[in-house]
TrEMBL record, chains A, B, C, D:
Residues 151-285 form the Alanine dehydrogenase/pyridine nucleotide transhydrogenase NAD(H)-binding domain. Residues 6-124 form the Dipicolinate synthase subunit A N-terminal domain. NCBIfam families: PRK08306.1, spore_dpaA. This is Dipicolinic acid synthetase subunit A. It comes from the Bacteria. It comes from Natronobacillus azotifigens.
Length: 290, 290, 290, 290
């Protein structure tokens, strides 16, 4: 009889609840969770342990929080008051075949991985995770667009900057809601795809010749794109939603000066759909382990 | 030279600001507004008057609030502290060719109209207004669905009850967001249309054989449809949004008992998109007058 | 034990093959077919009979061809060389509770029904059948549009006249293919629905102010709509597809004079998708009988 | 004053008519065409020349047929009876700054380009051209699917193999027509995108567990994918359309043996929409030259 795959989940946020439930459905896995002590024992039907009680040497996989490990070796566990610290000694005890999952890599984590010759899978870097997460991200943007405007998305002129993994989904879904979608991109192939999607495309170099009609602008480009020059052309009752990671792509100070509402909306999957976000992680971890 | 059409707008809410602006763009119209005295004079560029200063005899059209006139003859003016009362004498002074607009007719109003032989257009009864308003109503439902669930609309099983003016739009837009939409209706032709829309249809008589898989239920039928028998089949983490006018179609007490979140969401166009709602009114009034 | 429902299928075309197969799956039914003698015995697994061998008195339902009965009492049976004639005597023998199905009623048939006090269901008059058939009709129009133009439907300006059962589907599907769809209608509520569908609407009275940009025009209105005045405004390399029943809504003679390709495309469901068309008939007959 | 850009178009098929017309609209260009002598002089309003009369030394750009140059140096000119041969001497006369366009590169052409140090743009290799052409390709597949089945695309189970430039458009458009689309791919990110598009995805390794339900299979993968093992699982009344370039991805001999209709449909843009295909070429050439 084949042995079960032993997996430890160390810390994490609301997404990890659903992720753990889903992983627990796979009966090839034997799970233990650390850092969920504020939850009722029966919550997942999964064994809760303290870090020191974990049989570290026998683990096949370790799942760290989406945020990785901070510079002091601590991890984030929102359902625990304990401090969870993963020392060099702790990493030393891990078997060489262990697979570590994290959302993003961090300097401390990268160093441990290198030192001990381990395998790290930073989930948020994966194309499939980014595409799956684009859906809850977009729903978050839709919610904000409805909340922060006094007009409908339907028939509004919605500008989407970037046609990457998030941008394509944002463009698709706002189109599905009846907006007039304009996509700004810099690659000829992206503009061809925009045309194929039945949307209006423009080259980012010419953005200011289009933005006057913009009602809602959604930026997905992690670069300084919505500069003061662009903002000058935008109506003061337009809404700007910046989805790009810090520092974002919008000159927020200038937007404020012009009286334009500009929202830097980060971490949307975990905020609007932690259950879905957890299922996404479980699905991909499942595929990576099997 | 043709005379201008003289229109008085008496009271109203946020929707009436945009409506007034739009009507003011038509230069065949001469507008006066009563009941907006809390707003800055220059706000619309439209003349503000008191009821007593209005040349009632010369009016061609009168626009009453969406809510009509209450049993005491008073109208609702959210941008004024004054009480506006339309007496039988006031109606007596109106020209016989005047057209009166209201959202809904009310007993007092109906009586005045009958007594004085006037023409009344209750806008909210009109098919075109109901269809245009279905869009902001649906966006309101989408916002609620994103806010009150921890999963995405995408891939969720969304049940829409009724394929009337609102139901068709709700079904269309949730489909546009990637939900698996199931529509319950009672007419064979509605079920045929559901199939043509690429959605799943079921006869309302058989609702309980389907509802177990329901993640979000949106009712548009103004009749007791989501009874305790139906609610018994629904998962406790499902979300119910009832859009039907009071008293709605959901057994809210029973839903509460079962721990199911059930929201009776009324007046959504005015809440989520007053500007669009105002434009809709202006568009239809324009067509009715011209 | 409940008796089976006895159904005779008399004549019919390719659609009736699939219809018969589907009805035969219902084991409450006992089927006999007349007028399919050119087909192999085992084709349907359904009993083939001659008209004279039919136990007419015992029938519960009779299914006539889509085209009904001609003025001489003959029916159309494309899979037979025999002449099938339904005389007054034959009708006389039918039980009073029998249900007769036909596509359309015809004078001879209507007279027999009236004389003998029978129940007739002309399937093509039903809303549900018309909506289901709108799908294969539209696919036929799509095929013609691809065949008879040298440009793509995607990005073409496609004008749809009428927003009835066929028009709505035509508009929906051409939109799904990326066309810029313009719908002409005369009802304010239809124009509201067109807006909600995310399409461009215009009042039929103003058609000539829009048609200059038209690449493909699809008429669904059974009235003289595409007159010489309209045709004058249309580009000579545009394509016109008239779906309306005879005589259609297009001035074909004038179109020819102007060198515009105009196709009167009738009976599309039976031509492009007889299997689907047969399934539709079976589905609705099933619902009517049960 | 800036000089005009001198462009020679040498040979080509129906697509080149529209392409030439579109390029002629750009008044920075001075065009000459060779190999269109069967057409009326006034057809394009563009100067027709013989190869020997061309001022080769002064050209800024040369546009060759989509098919490039054959091994003997000849090019394909469907609107001419003349043989057009481009010798090494002819290439020698070209200025070093000339840009040459072709659909695909060929050995003879590649050699000339290398020998004379010229710049060649094989249009069909470009991502943007492939994406634009995916649209007429897909419309061709739609036409074939309607013609060669007796059921509707709506509600049919349509399998699309590959989610490249063509596959994505095929999947999108058949979805737009109401098919149940299943996409087979091998990359996890492609399967994530399929989910985001609201379609069903499966890994190509598991294709045979899905194909039993397939009504229409459309292959876009230029590799042996639809093998006899796959064909064994497919219904004999299913339709297979292979879009992949020669030799395609389908075991046609085996399909024939099993009685399955399998069509190898190549060159669809030029066949179903030469005007659009020509516009695509003109658009991209314009962008490359400017
Ligand atoms: N707010 C949230 O909740 C949330 C959720 C998920 C992701 N995100 C963030 O959203 C952003 C986009 O994520 P993604 O997955 O879509 O990334 P992606 O697939 O890499 O797409 C990035 C897009 O930005 C464009 N771009 C990058 N640099 C550019 C520049 N200098 N000028 C013009 N265009 C440029 C890229 O175009 P090229 O292809 O031409 O380079 C591409 O279209 C990231 O910052 C990500 O962290 C936020
Ligand atoms: N929440 C908001 O902000 C908001 C906004 C707009 C409208 N509304 C309300 O939403 C409701 C629907 O409006 P609408 O414009 O869509 O109305 P509608 O066009 O009349 O549609 C009503 C639908 O309910 C069905 N129905 C009515 N009585 C039924 C019964 N006893 N059993 C089964 N089905 C029944 C109708 O089916 P049949 O065709 O078979 O009768 C139809 O599909 C109304 O109460 C309206 O006041 C609310
Ligand atoms: N070619 C085929 O294979 C095929 C297949 C199915 C049906 N058909 C034919 O297609 C036609 C449409 O069928 P349908 O089921 O869509 O019918 P329908 O539901 O009755 O729709 C007819 C449409 O035409 C409009 N209309 C009628 N008379 C008009 C007039 N005088 N002026 C302006 N608009 C007018 C109606 O508008 P209002 O609502 O304002 O009256 C409605 O939008 C019929 O002739 C039918 O026999 C053909
Ligand atoms: N019939 C016509 O009129 C017409 C028109 C245009 C194009 N075409 C032809 O259609 C085909 C597709 O063109 P395209 O532009 O879509 O190409 P593409 O963008 O390169 O896409 C090719 C697809 O095939 C997949 N693939 C390739 N080799 C594979 C293998 N061994 N196993 C599994 N999947 C494989 C690729 O997946 P990965 O990303 O995983 O490699 C990708 O999804 C080409 O042969 C092209 O010449 C035909």
């Amino acid at each position: 009889m084949k042995n079960k795959i032993r997996i430890a989940i160390l810390g994490g946020d609301a997404r990890y609840l659903e992720m753990t439930k889903k992983l627990a459905e796979n009966n090839h896995f034997e799970l233990e969770v650390v850092g969920f002590d504020q939850l009722n024992e029966g919550f997942f039907g999964v064994k809760q342990t303290d870090l020191e009680d974990l049989s570290v040497e026998e683990l096949d996989a370790v799942i760290l929080p989406v945020t990785g490990i901070d510079e002091d070796g601590k991890i984030n566990a929102v359902f625990s008051n304990q401090k969870i610290h993963l020392s060099t000694d702790w990493f030393e005890r891990l078997s060489k075949h262990v697979v570590m999952f994290t959302g993003i890599s961090t300097p401390y984590l990268a160093e441990q991985i290198a030192t001990h010759g381990l395998k790290l899978i930073p989930l948020m870097n994966r194309d499939d995770v980014a595409i799956y997460n684009a859906v809850p991200t977009t729903e978050g943007a839709i919610m904000l667009a409805i909340q922060h405007t006094n007009f409908t998305i339907h028939d509004a002129n919605v500008f989407v900057l970037g046609l990457g993994r998030v941008g394509m989904t944002v463009a698709n879904k706002f189109n599905g809601l009846g907006a007039n979608v304009f996509v700004g991109a810099r690659k000829a192939s992206d503009l061809a795809r925009v045309n194929e999607m039945g949307l209006n495309g423009f080259h980012l170099d010419e953005i200011t010749t289009y933005t006057e009609s913009c009602d809602i602008l959604i930026n997905t480009i992690p670069a300084s794109i919505v500069t003061s020059d662009v903002l000058k052309t935008i109506k003061s009752n337009a809404l700007i939603i910046d989805l790009a990671s810090k520092p974002g792509g919008v000159d927020f100070a200038y937007a404020k000066k012009r009286g334009i509402t500009a929202i830097h909306a980060l971490g949307l999957p975990g905020r609007v759909a932690p259950k879905t976000a957890g299922e996404i992680l479980a699905k991909v971890i499942n595929q990576c382990i099997l």
